[in-house]
Amino acid sequence: MDVQYDVIIIGSGPAGLTAAVYATRANLKTLIFEAETPGGKLTKTYSIENYPGIKSISGVDLAMQMMEHGTEFGAAIEYAPVEKVENCGDYKKVVTAFGDEFTAKCVIVATGTKERTLDLPGSDEYTGRGISYCAVCDGAFYRNKDVVVVGGGNSALEEALYLTQLVNKVYIVIRRDVFRADATVVDKVKANEKIEIVTKSLPHALVTENKVITGLEIENVDTHELKVLNCSGIFPYIGADPATGFLKNYDVLDSKGYVIVDKNMATSVPGLYAAGDVTVKDLRQVVTATNDGAIAANSVTRYINK
Amino acid sequence: MDVQYDVIIIGSGPAGLTAAVYATRANLKTLIFEAETPGGKLTKTYSIENYPGIKSISGVDLAMQMMEHGTEFGAAIEYAPVEKVENCGDYKKVVTAFGDEFTAKCVIVATGTKERTLDLPGSDEYTGRGISYCAVCDGAFYRNKDVVVVGGGNSALEEALYLTQLVNKVYIVIRRDVFRADATVVDKVKANEKIEIVTKSLPHALVTENKVITGLEIENVDTHELKVLNCSGIFPYIGADPATGFLKNYDVLDSKGYVIVDKNMATSVPGLYAAGDVTVKDLRQVVTATNDGAIAANSVTRYINK
Question: Whole-angstrom Cα distance, residue B292 to residue B15?
């Protein structure tokens, strides 16, 4: 059996693309899988100001630069969702949703996380038509209108700040009365006149008229009082879950679905590695993802040369 | 007692400067110490091709960009070697070699490593006059001459490649008959006509004439035969040791002097953290250093807000 690749990297965010740089610089024959847009979560981020050496860059630009860099030394790329990874002993078989099969000595899982969707009646129906999970992608549709951002983490607040450049007003709805985000970002949000912070509240129902969103009904978590925020768009940033459905047959996931790895980014399955946001870790950042990608590729190199 | 800073970061390489970005973005009052040139080992590296998103950049340029970024959000910087860090319970006192004292709630040690020097009679005398630990700094002094690089890791080989742009000939002396460096770098070295690889050999003595280096005597590790390589310059890249002399009074170092940290970059001493090459780790790279810096600063933020 001819194994086609030394390593298949699933996902082309900062972790996967860094793994590609390191793997190809070590002369490993490398294939990258991407189900959507290269760059992972970067492409949905307006501005990155904490990637050292680059003071400020749009997520899309950093994604493109990383993509060019990741494929600079000969990595191939396939645009397809991965359906499953079969463990064939000393090699792995990766099967895509289109039924195509590829083999490699090692696999690095770098699929990141997927945004948690708003769980209200009608949410699915209105996604892309009033509900958006990407302010950078869809913000311009709400020019001079009022919108609601749900969530109080860094992503929520940064996207809210981004939206103030386009829209008339941004409500930020948070469950508690404090934010989880960095202090500098919170300061910017509090100083922005276009933003109104609504604390201790949770989304309760979509308000629509003629199949168009006109508001979000929210519930106070203490008093259970209901109230409608009039808006044309809703941007939920309420967390994310690891994209590891295709690994269900392996005993490598924690109870939340994140991949358990050791300090070399190795799982308990020989030849199976993971890197970036998809792994069990405390701090999910571009710099921590690139770290993981480099370590995973280095471990793969040692595994193959052994 | 008024503690002056939230955090003092010792060292301004990629780890220290990333810690500065994250600490100041979390509104921590931050002071960085640098004993030499900001940028750490970057400033002695000709070219960086594995920092994701930047395909190729000189070490000095990346160091300058990281320095600008690290001080962008208000971090102060002091140019002084640190002599000791006193543990005063809920704060630390940092004492410089000049006798100045600074206090902070937390300290992040990011001092990296220092190149191991050539251990031959006369080595000290000829350092800077024929022996150099920085090809980028001193390579131009050896234009059109012959030089010897000692060592077979990535640094040695990359500096040898750099030197071929300036000098007439580069001997690379290695102890074994294989290199420890990345395959792509080894390929480039082997393909370069200006480079002659001398395997299974160790430096044995400096050869001088009228107080000027004219050669390096080497010994074959198998036959113990001696042989002189005629050269004007010697560039040793024979490893490095952690710069942790000022931490000797703490029980946080391993037998080689590296700082032992947990996954949050915390040492066993409350309020004392470390990041980057100075810590116990397998892979020392720019991306792994930035990772550590971000995690250390995040841990400090949580420690202080606790």
Answer: 6
Looking at CA atoms only, how far is residue A33 from chain B in angstroms?
18
Which chain A residues touch B293 with a CB distance below 8 Å?
52, 287
B134 is catalytic: yes
Convert the pLDDT of each residue in A196-236 to its tens digit.
Answer: 999 999 999 999 999 999 999 999 999 999 999 999 999 99
What's the rounded Cα separation, in Å, for the pair A149 and A158? 10
CB A207, CB A227: distance < 8 Å: no
* Contact of B276 with B20, CB cutoff 8 Å: no
Write the pLDDT tens digit of every residue in A117-142.
999 999 999 988 999 988 878 888 99
Q: Which of B137, B177, B251, B277 is catalytic?
A: B137
Q: Residue B265 is encoded by which pair of tokens? A: 């970059």
Determine the Cα–Cα distance for residues B246 and B249; give it in Å rounded to an integer: 8
Q: Which residue of B has its CA nearest to A18?
A: B52
Return the sign of the alpha-carbon dihedral for residues B299, B258, A286, B79. positive
pLDDT mean over A24-39: 92
Nearest Cα residue to B195 out of B152, B225, B226: B152
Q: Does A293 touch chain B (CB under 8 A)?
A: yes
Please give the structure tokens belonging to residue A194: 């276009």
Q: Does A54 touch chain B (CB under 8 A)?
A: yes
Mind listing the pLDDT tens digit for each residue in B133-185? 888 788 889 999 999 999 999 889 988 998 998 899 999 999 999 998 888 88
**Which residue's entry shows tokens 């100041």?**
B24
* Tens-digit pLDDT profile for residues B241-275: 999 999 988 999 999 999 999 999 999 999 999 99
Among B22, B53, B65, whose Cβ lies nearest the Cβ of A50? Answer: B22
Beta bridge partners of A235: A149
Q: Yes or no: say if A17 and A111 are a contact pair by the CB < 8 Å rule.
A: no
The mean predicted confidence, pLDDT, of chain A is 94
- Tokens for B197? 């690889």
Q: Which helix (H) or strand (E) holds B219?
A: strand B212-220
- Rounded CA gap, A158 and A185, in Å? 7
Dist. CA A23–CA B71, nearest whole Å = 33
Cβ contact B290–A291 (<8 Å): yes
Please give the Cα distance from B131 to B232 (Å, whole number).
9
Helices A59-70 + A14-25 axis angle, to 10: 20
Q: Which of B68, B282, B283 sits opposite A55 (nearest CB)?
A: B68
In the annotation, is B106 catalytic?
A: no
For residue B195, what are the CA distances in angstroms to A118, B132, B180?
62, 18, 17
Rounded Cα gap, residues A161 and A179, in angstroms: 14
- Interchain CB contact of B12 with A (< 8 Å): no
The Cα–Cα gap between B92 and B94 comes to 6
**Token code pair at residue A45:** 């981020």
